[in-house]
Design brief:
Strand content of chain A: 25-35%
Oligomer: heterodimer
Order of helices and strands of chain B: HHEHHHHHHHHEHHHHHHHEEHHH
Shape of chain B: elongated
Order of helices and strands of chain A: HEEEEEEEEEEE
Shape of chain A: elongated
CATH class of the largest domain in chain A: Mainly Beta
CATH topology of the largest domain in chain B: Cytochrome Bc1 Complex, Chain C
CATH architecture of the largest domain in chain A: 3-layer Sandwich
Radius of gyration of chain A: 29 Å
CATH topology of the largest domain in chain A: Rieske Iron-sulfur Protein
Number of domains of chain B: 2
Radius of gyration of chain B: 29 Å
Largest sheet of chain B: 2 strands, antiparallel
Strand content of chain B: under 5%
Distance between the termini of chain A: 72 Å
Strand order of the largest sheet of chain B: 1-2
CATH architecture of the largest domain in chain B: Up-down Bundle
Number of helices of chain A: 1
CATH superfamily of the largest domain in chain A: Rieske [2Fe-2S] iron-sulphur domain
Helix content of chain B: 55-70%
Largest interface: A-B, 56 and 71 residues
Number of helices of chain B: 20
Helix content of chain A: 10-25%
Strand order of the largest sheet of chain A: 2-3-4-9
Number of strands of chain A: 11
Distance between the termini of chain B: 89 Å
CATH class of the largest domain in chain B: Mainly Alpha
CATH superfamily of the largest domain in chain B: Cytochrome Bc1 Complex, Chain C
Chain lengths: 169, 466
């Protein structure tokens, strides 16, 4: 019976099925990759809510002083443990004016230390220095400290839980 | 005994084990490939050691941000021989990176990357990158107050990449901030993804050794000619080749054994790095440092001129990888002996000198302010008037001592001021303090006139008396 089928058709069918098999496998590979890549990219695609965290009442902070405050991230995962914390150097400059500096040095992210008597922020990693208003003073950082949004609500000082500041090119 | 033998024969016949292994073990190698050839296998042995100790550690380690720290403490203090396990894994990592460097230098100097072994070199470069990646992600799994900063610093470096930098940074952190997902990401990379790639590419790398043969030691004047080489090599092996096992393998075994023994001794005597405070990214009392094999890179960021930094961070590694991968493409023939390739010796010496210098600077890290310094003791201040004594107090309070030393007390960011009065006039001192300097902030507006005068009085007493 197969003698009646011309060779051209036999080979054509073989090629067709070969290509079909490869195409289907490739297609399935792509389909399976979608949730895999999704898992890798989830943190980039999640929408972070805007959350204001209270760090104390207005009276807790002396004018002209800079203190370290810590607060929870905007939407931490339940198993984050201590890593759900963020820190900020909070400076009260007047009755109702607060500045919340990110503790991350703008050079490569190490936590800066406030030296009260010297009125300077010093970074332990590569020696970056910032003035009390967060502006750049000396060392490798390309710019001053990043500021987090801060507001006063009902006598409470609130900082907006913000992303880690990332220095661009 | 006979039962065992027949059992073995059955197993061997059905699996073909000795038929597969024998030709590999007995494959011919050049007779004069001797002690300089042990470093590749030594790297492989340390890798196997890492996999074994890594699996053991993964039985105890808890890879969530919340519990990793507790499990690390458990491994280090309570689990039987847990701290030694950690020690072997840490020194094994160090050994692997050191050996990969030596192996790479040996291959480069003897130009074994030339035809037909170009792919061995290229796969090797990829393995180098992956190994450094393992070292980096591994340090991070030591999830204490310093470990979290490895993730942050890596993310910040990636942030400098144009256009997509912030996305890469957030990809690394697994979020907008460091958090619960960050550790899981690095755990997956360190335990699953990168090892899978390593297994595959090591497989290729070792296969190529069998396919292309071990390179013969270079001879000055004997040029690599691609159209003639393979035939020449086969003939040479037929004439003088020796079976790898045992004629050459004994050196690999001995050296590999030595490496593992040294790792064990270090693990028992010195032990793995201490676990610090819990991984709180709001803890400002940290001194983030990479492990020793990346300390030179850390030093580079402190010492590099500020203006070129972003460019170096992004394009430096890219340039290095491109140059390395293209090496055997452009230079795959000709002389192999280092004496006929003086540039190769120069380049290796330059790179070794650069890395060692940066390493020692990184270890000292003089650019880090010394936060632990204490106010100058009375005998260092000496018999001085009241103004100068007040100045000595301000020298500490105002932060000068974090960066400047006097008689060994203080930091090394700035010049030593023990005898500064011999070098600078009063005017010069005033200008420097008021305006700052290259890495020094200006203090002009931070000091009252009285404070400035007190400090100047103090500094003027800093003389050797000559």
């Amino acid at each position: 019976m197969s003698d009646l089928i011309p060779d051209a058709v036999k080979i054509g069918r073989r090629k067709f099925f070969t290509k079909m098999g490869i195409f289907l496998s490739g297609f399935l590979g792509v389909v399976i990759s979608i949730p895999v890549i999704g898992a890798l990219l989830t943190p980039l695609l999640k929408k972070t809510p805007i959350v204001w965290r209270s760090v104390g009442s207005v009276d807790d902070f002396e004018i002209g002083k800079t203190v370290l405050v810590t607060f929870q991230d905007a939407s931490p995962l339940p198993w984050s443990g201590p890593t759900s914390q963020s820190g900020s150097w909070l400076r009260r400059t007047s009755e109702d004016e607060f500045h919340a500096f990110s503790i991350n040095c703008t050079h490569l992210g190490c936590p800066v230390r406030w030296i009260a008597d010297a009125d300077l922020f010093l970074c332990p990693c590569h020696g970056g220095v910032y003035n009390q208003d967060g502006s750049y003073a000396a060392g490798p950082p390309p710019k001053g400290l990043v500021k987090y949004p801060v507001r006063i609500r009902k006598d409470e000082v609130e900082i907006m839980a913000s992303p880690l500041p990332i220095t661009r090119l | 005994m006979n039962k065992l033998k027949s059992l073995w024969h059955w197993f061997d016949d059905r699996t073909g084990l000795s038929d597969t292994i024998r030709p590999l073990a007995k494959h011919l190698v050049p007779p004069d490939s001797k002690w300089t050839y042990v470093f590749g296998s030594a790297t492989l042995f340390t890798f196997i050691l890492q996999v074994i100790t890594g699996v053991a550690l993964s039985l105890l380690y808890q890879p969530t941000s919340e519990t990793a720290y507790q499990s690390l403490k458990y491994i280090s203090t309570e689990a039987p021989l847990g701290s030694i396990l950690r020690g072997i894994h840490f020194f094994g990592a160090s050994a692997m990176i050191l050996l990969i460097g030596i192996h790479m230098i040996r291959v480069y100097l003897s130009a074994s990357y030339k035809y037909p072994r170009e792919m061995s070199w290229i796969s090797g470069v990829i393995l180098l990158g992956l190994t450094l990646g393992m070292g980096f992600t591994g340090q991070l799994l030591r999830w204490d107050s310093n470990g979290v900063w490895s993730a942050v610093v890596a993310a910040e470096q990636m942030g400098r990449v144009p256009i997509i930098g912030v996305w890469i940074a957030r990809f690394i952190l697994a979020g907008e901030t460091l958090g619960g997902a960050t550790l899981s990401r690095f755990f997956s990379f360190h335990v699953f993804l990168i090892p899978a790639l390593l297994f595959g590419i090591i497989g290729l790398h070792v296969f190529l050794v069998f396919r292309n043969g071990i390179s013969e030691p270079p001879e000055a004047g004997r040029l690599v000619k691609p159209d003639e080489y393979r035939t020449w090599y086969e003939k040479m092996l037929e004439k003088k080749g020796v079976p790898f096992w045992p004629d050459a393998a004994w050196r690999d075994m001995l050296f590999g054994l030595g490496v593992v023994i040294v790792i064990l001794i270090l693990a028992v005597v010195k032990g793995a790095p201490e676990i610090g405070a819990p991984p709180d990214p709001a803890n400002i009392h940290t001194n983030p440092r990479p492990d020793w094999y990346l300390l030179w890179y850390f030093a580079l960021f402190a010492l590099m001129p500020r203006s070129i930094e972003s460019v170096v961070i992004v394009f430096g590694p890219l340039l290095a990888i491109t140059v390395l991968i293209l090496l055997p493409i452009f230079f795959n023939r000709g002389e192999r002996h280092p004496m006929r390739r003086p540039w190769s010796i120069g380049i290796v010496l330059f790179i070794i000198t650069m890395i060692i210098t940066l390493w020692s600077e990184g270890a000292k890290s003089p650019w880090s302010p010394d936060f632990s310094t204490q106010p100058l003791p009375a005998k260092v201040v000496g018999q001085v008037n009241a103004d100068a004594r007040a100045g000595a107090g301000l020298f500490y309070d105002k932060g000068c001592q974090f960066c400047h030393s006097i008689e060994g007390h203080g930091g090394h960011r700035g010049p030593d001021l023990t005898y500064v009065a011999d070098r600078l006039t009063l005017d010069q001192m005033t200008i420097r303090i008021a305006n700052g300097g290259k890495n020094m902030p200006p203090f002009g507006e931070k000091l009252s006139e009285k404070e400035m005068n007190a400090i100047l009085s103090f500094l003027q007493t800093r003389t050797s008396g000559k």
